[in-house]
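Practice problem: predict the structure.
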Amino acid sequence: MITGPGQAGLVSLDEAARAVADLVGGFAPIEAFEDVGYLSGRLRAAADVPVSIIADPPTTVFDAALLVDVLVHAAERIATAARAVDPRADDWRAWDPEIAFLGGRAWSVRFESAPGGGELGLLIQLEGTEVTLVDRLDELDDDPVLG
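Answer:
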């Protein structure tokens, strides 16, 4: 655990993966990006929901308590993201959600099949439990991580 000023509770990519190992199955490193730590697996409580932890740069740290909270309460947290798209969104499971943790308290839900989404869906970015951005993903080049 990293305990510098303002960083209490923040952990490395490997420590974050260990913190959520009981909640995410099949965590495996993805080596598609140079100088980016990237782990991907599936939420055990809902195997159709992919989960990624992305460290860009590899020294990025994560709020372990937030990761655990989001994954334990995944249905509620994904519903919060879905309501940013449609306040009446009840059937977000049909939107093919994916969860990604981006460092600190930043995380996102990408809905591959959300209404009004672009070619690559809709990206909802959150800081803790607050929605900070709703982005229609029209092209891969627009994605700061994958582009």
